[in-house]
Design brief:
The chain is of the alpha+beta class and 170 residues long. It contains six helices and six strands; from the N terminus they run ααββαββββααα.
Amino acid sequence: MIKNFFLIAVRNISRHKVFTFINVTGLAVGLAASLLILLWVQDEFSFEKFNLNAGNIYRVEEDQFYSGERYHVTVTPHPGGPVWKQKIPEIKEQTRINLWLPRILFRQEEKLFFETSIATVDSGFFNVFTFPLLMGDPETALKSPHSIVLSRKLSEKYFGNTNPVEAICL
């Protein structure tokens, strides 16, 4: 009986080639679009899963108006964070992140390096985000004015295999 169904299907496909092409193409496009949407949604939900506070972290955005036009921006006034934390009791912690720095020149002994991927953050950064540190204490990492946190890649670039804390203190 199943053999008969397949025989009828093949006959219909061979007789109605245009309709078959349209149906198969529509099915393929629909499946491809569904898979792409699924992958996009999965990607969107995959961010910040390592962070223990991911459900309580929010980015402040605002609408600015210039010449009668509305602009939606993710840039807020620099003093906003501490003032909002002081005036809004629901805010437990705040941190400001500045990613738009120019190239910065660093010198380690006789070596010179230009760095472009530098971010400046508040001392409360590690109270909001739970990044694992290889060395040091996240509670005191950014408390002093001229403190820095290096990625493993930058640490190896500047200090090789030596301990960067010991190399700076010498």
